[in-house]
Design a protein that fits this description.
By secondary structure, the chain is of the alpha+beta class. It has a single domain, classed as tt1808, chain A (Alpha-Beta Complex). It is about 25% helix and about 30% strand. The chain has helices at about 40-60, 95-100, 120-135, 180-185; strands at about 5, 25-30, 30-35, 60-65, 85-90, 110-115, 140-145, 150, 160, 165-170, 175-180. The strands form three sheets. Strands 4-5-6-7-8-9 form a six-stranded mixed sheet, sandwiched between helices. The protein has a three-stranded antiparallel sheet with strand order 1-3-2, with no helix packed on it.
């Protein structure tokens, strides 16, 4: 997840369409928030997106990276959010919706929020609840510092995964499985020749 901070000056929500969907902003409570991210969080989100995208090669669906904005919140139809990765089942989104410009109006089935050091817990909780209330079936809150993942479901159940566990998406993503440790793995420096 990217920490957000309101920008100075008024920005009327009716002008939210003027914000480019690929830029680092969200519209929350009629205020534009600039997203602040850390390299580690961006990389973890990118790795997860890569696995979701590869999953879509064999399981029909759409995977979306962090730059994607979703406008699927009621009653605040001006609100849009940008998860760090998302998945929408193919039968829930048409090619026409995929080809349309602007924010995606179809709610994701799965979203991932990767924590950054500047994130505030109340903002994380609020965002998680917004996704669940919008109808998202799985919300993954990923903590790169603790190498852990909290999995939230609409029924209120929560699971906690650690580096020794495997992230799955059942029943929303049947067959999806990623070792949690791989999500947080950093490249090893090449061995220096001796002698």
């Amino acid at each position: 997840m990217r920490s957000s901070h309101p920008l100075r000056g008024a920005f009327p929500p009716q002008n939210a369409h003027e914000l480019e969907p690929g830029k680092g902003f969200e519209l929350v409570n009629d205020q534009v928030h600039e997203l602040n991210v850390r390299a580690k969080s961006i990389r973890v989100g990118g790795r997860l997106y890569r696995w979701l995208d590869e999953y879509c090669d064999t399981h029909p669906g759409w995977a979306f990276p962090a730059e994607t904005s979703f406008r699927c919140f009621t009653p605040d139809t001006n609100r849009f959010r940008k998860p760090d990765a998302a998945f929408i089942a193919l039968d829930r989104s048409t090619n026409e919706q995929y080809d349309s410009e602007g924010h995606i109006s179809v709610r994701p089935d799965v979203v991932a929020e990767v924590l950054s050091p500047n994130d505030l817990i109340y903002e994380v909780n609020a965002k998680r609840e917004e996704w669940l209330q919008a109808g998202v079936k799985l919300v993954w809150v990923i903590d790169p510092v603790e190498s852990s993942i909290h999995i939230y479901r609409p029924d209120g159940s929560v699971a906690l995964l650690h580096a020794t566990d495997t992230l799955t998406g059942d029943p929303v993503l049947p067959g999806f499985a990623v070792p949690v440790a791989e999500l947080f793995r950093v490249p090893a420096a090449p061995a220096q020749p001796t002698g």
